[in-house]
Amino acid sequence: MTRFSASTPTERRKLVVDAITAHRERGSAFCTLVAEPDIDSEAEPMAAAEGDETEETDETEVETELPPWIQFGDRTLNVDCTDEELAALKELVREFPAFKIERLESPDDAEGTNVHISAKADANRIAQFVERAFRDVYGRSESVTVWAVEV
User: Fold this and answer.
1) In the structure, what pLDDT confidence band is assigned to residue 39 with cuts at 50, 70 and 90?
2) CB-based contacts of 61: which residues, under 8 Å, 6+ apart?
3) pLDDT band at residue 71, thresholds of 50, 70 and 90?
4) Rounded to whole angstroms, how far apart are CA atoms 68 and 131?
5) What is the DSSP letter of 55?
6) CB 70 within 8 A of CB 78
7) What is the DSSP letter of 77?
């Protein structure tokens, strides 16, 4: 694998296919893809924080919020999501017949749900699902950069 990021829908799908292929060739436990935060989503909280100490605390929380990630391994996708994102994820899974939510875990000490989705499909179809998940579930823009951070 020679590249580790992509910023267009076509290139992001190719990146996911390459990451899955590298993961399988290396026999690693999983590969992880991360979407960068959208610039637009950060601009509003930062602008609102100017001159208001109370909202500066909120700004810090926005900056330390983890970006959305998707892991793939052993024909399973693993994601974390909020309740709102979970509803969108369930809708997306319905559009992909070869995908099925296998497990939902919502620990008491966590804000959200960890979801395991079986993905009995080829790398291209998985890449289509990942692209849609970053866009439709996590609300990322068409120009978001996705990174393959672990293969």
Assistant:
1) low
2) none
3) very high
4) 12
5) H
6) yes
7) E
* pLDDT at residue 49, as a whole number: 32
Tell me the H-state helices in the chain: 9-26, 39-49, 53-64, 83-94, 123-132
**Nearest Cα to 24, choosing from 3, 56, 1, 43?**
1
Residue 4, Cβ density class (10 Å: 0-12 exposed, 13-18 middle, ≥19 buried): middle
131 class by beta-carbon count within 10 Å (0-12 exposed, 13-18 middle, 19+ buried): buried
Instruction: Place 110 in a pLDDT band, splitting at 50, 70 and 90.
Output: confident
**If you average pLDDT over every residue of the chain, what do you get?**
85
Tokens of 112: 């959200």
Cα distances from 29 to residues 6, 16, 74, in angstroms, run: 23, 16, 8
- Per DSSP, 141 falls in state -
- pLDDT higher than threshold 70 for residue 59: no
pLDDT of 61: 45
CB-based contact 121:99 (threshold 8 Å): yes
CA distance 119 to 83: 22
